[in-house]
Request: fold
Amino acid sequence: MKIILKTSSQEHILAGGSADHEDPIHLTISAQRTLQSVRAIRASSVQTYDRGNLQIKLTFEVGRLHESQSDAMNYMLIHASTITNAHGELLLQLEDPAHRSLILESATLVSIQTAYKGNASHTLYEIYGGKLHVNQSS
Reply:
């Protein structure tokens, strides 16, 4: 699976997919609805109301091999600063015969954590967004 964060000015490849030996691992998607709770005095129970908002949280890890230990260290130090304020559309390109893809709207990079060991870097991404849907134009 290839994962790309598209902003208004550029595309950030967060996972290059099988061709680049950058498949995401530990991929999780969770959805949470925003609820309003009413706790009336002397009421027998709490009442909840769905506010109609849905927030999607996507987390995944990517391992990358670099030419040298120095390259891995440089990537670790610089990568986060290049995408820290990234906000846009997250494209998840599935590597299946149908070439399907999913889009996470209003995607915002919330957290990024990168480490290196030897000539490999390991990055954990946490992204929040709105609607997650199948891209109809694929």
